[in-house]
Amino acid sequence: MTRTIFVTVALSAMAVSAAAQQAGMTPEAQVKNALSAAPASVAKDATVMTFDGTVLHKGTSDWICFPDDPKVPNNSPMCLDATWREVFDAWTNKRDPVVERVGLAYMLQNDMPVSNTDPFATEPTADNQWIPVGKPHIMMVVPDASALEGIPSDPDNGGPWVMWRGTPYVHVMIPTVPRKD
Questions:
Q1: What angle do CA 8, 31, 86 make, to 5 degrees?
Q2: What is the pTM of this model?
Q3: Does residue 179 lie within any of the structural domains?
Q4: What does the alpha-carbon distance between residue 161 and residue 154 come to, in Å, rounded to a whole number?
Q5: Contact, 56 vs 66, CB < 8 A?
Q6: Stronger pLDDT, 79 or 169, i.e. the higher one
Q7: Is position 180 within any domain?
């Protein structure tokens, strides 16, 4: 049986704007915040939607971008293709995702603190390898976990690392540079 894989490409740390972290952002601010998660070539045609499904901006591509929502754990602005929306929905609803093809997602702003080993952890524990400062990243999900064999799990190794190994949500973080407009 194949396992679903997330391959997450990490970027160097960059602060999420204070405005994006404030509850009650205007729709215009939410759109700007959401689109900051992806390269301009992706963002220009993306739809922007809130986590409750409200469409703030209708795009022309398959990409959907979500603004930062401080009420959602482990969240920062993100842009997801259809495959990643399936994976994100599965993770959110604690079910195994169904991935039939490679999918991509972008989080080019700081990510929230997160466990490197437990996809549902909300705080550090002695054994969940907490990453206190999230890093901006690009994610790629693939349908076969064996494709990740040989990639280390150490987030401090200076290069790509596997996150959530041994779960249906295993993925790889790969450092890169943040988006600059």
A1: 40
A2: 0.78
A3: no
A4: 6
A5: no
A6: 79
A7: no
**Cβ density class 73-96: b for 16+ within 10 Å, e for less:** eebbbbbbbebbbbbbebbeeeee
Calpha distance 37→11 (Å, rounded): 11
Residue 82 pLDDT more than 60? yes
Q: Does residue 178 belong to any structural domain of this protein?
A: no
Of residues 79, 70, 141, the one with CA closest to residue 107:
79
Q: Which domain holds residue 32?
A: 5-173
Single-letter amino acid, residue 10: A
Q: How many CB atoms lie within 10 A of CB 19?
A: 13
The helix (run of H) or strand (run of E) holding residue 172 is strand 171-173
Q: Which residue has the higher pLDDT, 103 or 13?
A: 103
**Distance set, CA 166 to CA 3, 44, 68, 128 (Å):** 9, 36, 28, 13
The tally of domains found in the chain comes to: 1
124 falls within a domain = yes
Determine phi and psi for 171, rounding to 5 degrees.
-150, 165
Q: How far apart are the first and last CA of the chain?
A: 43
What's the token pair of residue 126? 């002695």
Secondary structure E strands in 34-160: 47-49, 55-57, 64-66, 78-80, 103-107, 114-115, 130-131, 137-142
